[in-house]
Structures are given as structure tokens and as C-alpha cells.
Amino acid sequence: MSLKRKAAAIGIGELKPYREPTDDSALDLMAAVAAEAIADAGLEKKDIDGLLVGMASADPGMIYPSAIGELFDLRPRMLNVLDIGGASGTGMIWRAAAAIDAGICNAVLCLTADLNRLGRRRPPMISLMYEFEAPYGAIGANCSYALIAQRHMALYGTTPAQMAKVAVDQRTNALANPLAFFNDIPLTIDDVLNSRYICEPLHLFEIVSPMSGGAAVVVASPEIARRSKHAPIWLLGAGEGSDRASITYAPEVTESAVKGAADTAFKMAGLQRKDIDLVCPYDCYTITVLVTLEDAGFCKKRQGGPFAMDHDLTYAGDFPCNTHGGQLSFGQPGLAGGMSHVTEGIRQLMGRGGGRQVKDARLAYVNGNGGIMSEQVGLILERAS
Description:
Layout: E1 8-14, H1 26-40, E2 50-54, H2 64-72, E3 78-82, H3 88-101, E4 107-114, H4 128-133, H5 140-156, H6 160-174, H7 189-194, E5 197-199, E6 202-203, E7 213-220, H8 222-225, E8 233-242, H9 258-269, E9 278-280, H10 286-295, H11 304-310, H12 326-330, H13 335-349, E10 363-370, E11 375-383
Parallel strand pairs: 2-3, 2-4, 9-10
Antiparallel strand pairs: 1-7, 1-8, 4-7, 5-6, 8-11, 10-11
């Protein structure tokens, strides 16, 4: 099955991430960003007949598709919740295209939002991982990604400065993004390396900051897309995969299902890596970007560190990467953090990047990552000439 040019993104909505306490619910944020995305697409609520929603951790137990439909007066013919962690935003895009291609619906609202969870009591989790592994082994994301970084350094000679370079270039991108949370103070490699360790070898500026916010994308049929007010951004290829849930069972922690997902996406699109104009890899940590660039085939395994050091990853550079600042500098509002890579890819291809616009951008690769490099989605997006 191929989804090549079977559907296109035609509208986006995104809230500026924030940390301040709020009386809003995740549902309120979803309603706000949904309205923005639908208006941006030049559609009305009655035109939306598909709804894909991410599971916000701040409101456990909420039946989101029907709740957001009721609140916003939508009447979807296809609706679902997608929960593959940080890969949910990217995963929604190809699912929307597949539903459209199947004739189930014509315009799908892909919706994510969440609240800052710091200081909140998290809902109880019942799983083998939390019951039997966390008390004795990998305790949460920081320790697990630090383990990946340590292993990458030991196997391939990756240096702290090479990882820090990712954060520095992405901060430069954020400085040109008015929606980015960290858009006022530049970073240097020394700044990153002199910031305190959160979990060695990862420093404070190499780890995302949880925030509140939301993001949404409208994906539409070719008939609707061709008369939209913005240039339609076509889905050319998509791939998805997982090789395990827990890092404990990873055959090699520096390798991931990114490879299979990216290979599938590029095969569907009929493109090579050298054809891509900008990349938007999920970046919960600096090491995540290096592993993703390697496994997605933009550089060889063990070369992620030197590749980041040798290339300019800013919007004006030779390898534009996370031109919105990435989650490291844009902020991570739950699943909407993962969706921010999608919205940025679409924004750039539409030519709406403002001061950070990548010149002549036509093709983008977007990656979504769930768990500890567990669930992976790769998308290739195109602005048709």
C-alpha cells in the first residue's frame, strides 16, 4: 500500500508553550488549537469529518474524541485516540491519510495538547516495566537516555561537545521563532557543558523542559487540498515500527526502530536521503538527535557526533535541523511537543518560516519517537512545485 500524495496537510495551529499555572484543562487547550488549525486551513467546523486525538497525561480517563467533538460541535465519521508516546503526532498524519484514501472521511483534525505535569500527582501506572524494572534498573527517561549516551560515547567515541552542538544550533533556530519558549538567550557549547548534570553525561541544556501547550494539523483529501488557501503539503512516504517497549530488552541501546520506519518512508516516497531539504527529528535529548540521524540514514552509524559538529544545523546552514528550535528550545508540551516537529515541517514547506525560513525548502523528513527510543514514525512531506 502506498499513501504517496493521497492526502495533504493544509492547516496548522500551535500555542506558545508556557510553564505558568493555569485553570485551563487539556481539553481547553485542544479546543483553542483546533479552532486555529481549522481556520488556518480555510475550512469550517462542518468540513471536519475525521478526528485523531493524543492522550493527554494531565487528564487521565478522558474520552477525548467524543469530548472534543461535543465541546467543539464536530460530527466526525472517523475518530480515535492515538497513544504511541512522542510519536503520536507523526503517527496521526499517516493514519489520517490512510482513512482519507479509504474513503472514510475527507478532512481530519489531528490534535494534541497537554499541561505541565511538574508538581502534579501522576496517575497510577500498572505495567511490568513500572512494577519490576523501574525500582531496580532504568528509572525514567533521564536515566535511560543517559545510558544510551554513555554507550554511544563508549562504542563510537562520541564526545560531550558533539552532543552539546545539537542544543546550541537548535537554540539559534529558536531565537528566530516567536513561539519558542527559549527564544531570548543564545547558547554556546561551553554553556551547555558547564550547566549542571541531570544524569551524567546529560546536562541541563540537553534535556527537554515539560510545559503546557498544544498543536494541531488538518489533513485533507486531494480535492479539498487543491483548493486550500495555503500550498498543500503532501504526504509522500510514511513508516512506523517498534522493536521493544523497555530499554532493558533492547539488543543494542544505540540502535532503534528509526531505521525500519525511515527505510519504509523513503521507499514509499521514491526518494533518497540527499533529496531532503530539512529534517525534524524528535529531540527529547541531544543524544536522541544523533541516534536518529544515524538510524534514519543521514550519516553512518558511529558518525552522528562528527556529523553534528561538521555541519551547520541552523535554518541558514547546510543541514537545517529542527528549525523551530526543537523541543530542547521550543519546549515540550506533552504530545504536542512531538507534533511541533510536524507543524514546523509543514510551516517551512509552506514558506511560512519567517525569519528562520529555509531557502527553497521542498522536501522534509519528520521523525516521531515514543518511549525510550521504543516507537518510531518517519514521514516525508513535500511541497509540490
